[in-house]
């Protein structure tokens, strides 16, 4: 079996799966239970200034029948006494010396930072995570994302911490900023040992259309909260990549955001994460998901012949390029595998209305046909097709040519004027506008129902 | 041992005749509606004789717009609730669902349809309103799916509508014919009451139109007359012994069953004659009433039965046994039926041939003849100029429903020779438009 253990900036853990600082790490009871179940580490629910929470704290985004594809909260940091938390950290560490226990911290003054860092170290924390990310409640008090959004403040506070820190320090970044690499660089300048990202994204998760108030509702009103869960993974992956590729960041990264299964974790790792943190999935399904996470990761590593996590940390990074570096000679064309097609015609309507009118319908069959000359290879049809591998995007160039936008610009062959002959869509076929009128009214508005309700053939009313 | 014990209470009856398509709850409807792919030019719509915009109403259910879903359904089909429960969806919408081609269970369209419409009915949502009074009157004969649908559509077009019905309840065979495990009387009648309350046509029950004088009066008082008379009693077999006690027609047996439930008596050993859907129903129903032995006897081979495969499966599932290639010769017994004398047959070149010397007798204490319904020829002959085709079906324009007597329009079983509720309701909606076009000339 592959070796899942990690040494993350000096913090050792039996596997890269850590619980993120959040409700699942609110108490020693929960963290022990998680370690018992197989989690590799836990970032304790943020310790710091005293807070009071409101009742009604979470909101969810459902997609059709799927619950919590997105999740948000208006909760603050730990509202339990610091002493209780520290005592429990100590107890957990005694019981699980080889698991990673990281204290997440958020306070205000330099003195407070010094005190809480020392106290956490004394309690036995293997590392510290500085919470510069919380986008609600704490930022109004000049903490959380208010710090994360100000690289200079972030640097200063991190430096305060480094003055007394004896264990590795991770700076947790907020995504509520236009360039995440700026706070990441500030963390490095301050001497931090690692960064973690992302914290939650400022959000309104939905509006109660009967009460006219945003979710979650507190006595008829609500506020913006922090967004997380499966829906945020794409945003997290992009920010992760930005930090991992930046020449002036060069710090180990703990990837967070939308991780629910081993695949999500592998994606984070391939883009540069060397540990991953999970919150929403554990809140939704409990600690038991760790079994699937580790088993999936192990199978993947066996499959690929990876012995340790480090064999593939950042392995996809060289293939994430700027748009101008992509090969413009590469061409794919949609191909429908007729024997698999079930005739839903979603590809047809998607391409017809949402892409390039490159799919047509033929009389006597429900299987659509690709008009290859019109297909630009956008992928849309293959994305909407409900049948696995029914529409494949097949390579149609001969693979011998390579030309990028950058090269074209340098060679002076890039289009520059509005109606430039060299522009992309210039010779691409589009139907005449008026050809749209009435084209498929009889089908879209809805077939025979229209006949029955008297809109065609039937005697008019 | 019989599969079912004889029900003696309403509760036991309901258990034996448990609904095949029970009502969905909101969660189930949410999950099922979420599976729909919302196909373009969806094949399920094309397969629905009433052309309901299925992906539209499923999408409405999924987004929590159940009332909008009911509106979509009723816009195409006034028997939207009943159809969701009684339609042979396996060969209609659900049979056409693209999931079948993936070997995945098709969307439960029927149950979703009943879900949305039941909710509208229970919450008494206002979905219909009569059109502005146009001063014209139409008489409708028969309060079955055809007659009621025609009445609804005409009311929405502003006509005054009076329905004349021979029986004591509306919905025709929906309440007197369809198997009780498909729909309950309460469900059927709730939809009828809902429609009538919002659209306001009058129905006169226990009022058969049976004489030339009555018709002449209608002709004088109304601008047009719609015939939604359906079919008649079970065809005679023309066999000796047919008049014995406990030899009954399937339609008559089922009508009694629907009205009297567990109070009806079924034999211990029942022979059902026929191979159509009604035969399957009668056989299933006998078994569910506690008959120990139910034999379905059919003149031809199993594959040649007119019944849908799933209906035969349903009958087999409750213990009905098939006996194929046998033709009845005589119903035997004194006053009461004691058996049926059969002769074996073989089919050659599409023709059934009796095999000489192969006669045998099968004992039983009840015979149910499911040998088709007769046309209402006597009644039709009272209408001057009304033509019927070679099979006794009323001849009428395919779209407008106008018969060869221009004042008369017809739809449903009487015109199509016997189909489903959905056909009757869809055709009658068109006929109402035909009447409107005719009277607007
Ligand atoms: C046993 C059986 C089971 C069936 N099961 C199903 C099923 O599961 N699903 C399905 O979709 N369809 C089923 N059908 C078919 C379906 O019931 C019919 O197709 C449908 O009811 C036809 O509607 P209709 O309005 O044309 O006729 P009917 O439903 O027959 O209605 C005609 C009405 O007119 C009245 N009437 C007739 N003559 C006169 C007169 N002279 N004066 C006054 N009133 C008159 C009758 O009393 C009756 O109420 C079944 C039919 C039978 C016989
Ligand atoms: C209810 C809730 C409370 C959270 N509290 C904290 C916190 O105290 N400190 C912190 O650094 N992050 C906090 N987070 C953010 C999570 O640690 C994590 O960064 C975010 O949820 C993204 O990961 P996910 O997509 O796996 O949920 C919280 C998240 C949630 C849902
Ligand atoms: S890839 Fe894009 S352009 Fe080509 S057929 Fe599919 S949807 Fe149309
Ligand atoms: S989306 Fe896929 S299954 Fe549907 S019609 Fe197109 S190719 Fe066939
Ligand atoms: S065919 Fe099936 S999946 Fe497609 S719209 Fe109809 S019910 Fe939905």
TrEMBL record, chain A:
CDD domains: DHPD_FMN. InterPro entries: 4Fe4S_Fe-S-bd, 4Fe4S_Fe_S_CS, Aldolase_TIM, Dihydroorotate_DH_cat. It comes from the Bacteria. It catalyses: 5,6-dihydrouracil + NAD(+) = uracil + NADH + H(+); 5,6-dihydrothymine + NAD(+) = thymine + NADH + H(+). PROSITE patterns: 4FE4S_FER_1, 4FE4S_FER_2. One of its GO terms (molecular function) is dihydropyrimidine dehydrogenase (NAD+) activity. NCBIfam families: PRK08318.1. This is dihydrouracil dehydrogenase (NAD(+)). It comes from Hymenobacter aranciens.
TrEMBL record, chain B:
Residues 15-124 form the Dihydroprymidine dehydrogenase domain. Residues 137-428 form the FAD/NAD(P)-binding domain. InterPro entries: DPD_II, FAD/NAD-bd_sf, FAD/NAD-binding_dom, Helical_ferredxn. It comes from the Bacteria. SUPFAM superfamilies: alpha-helical ferredoxin (SSF46548), Nucleotide-binding domain (SSF51971). This is NAD(P)-dependent oxidoreductase.
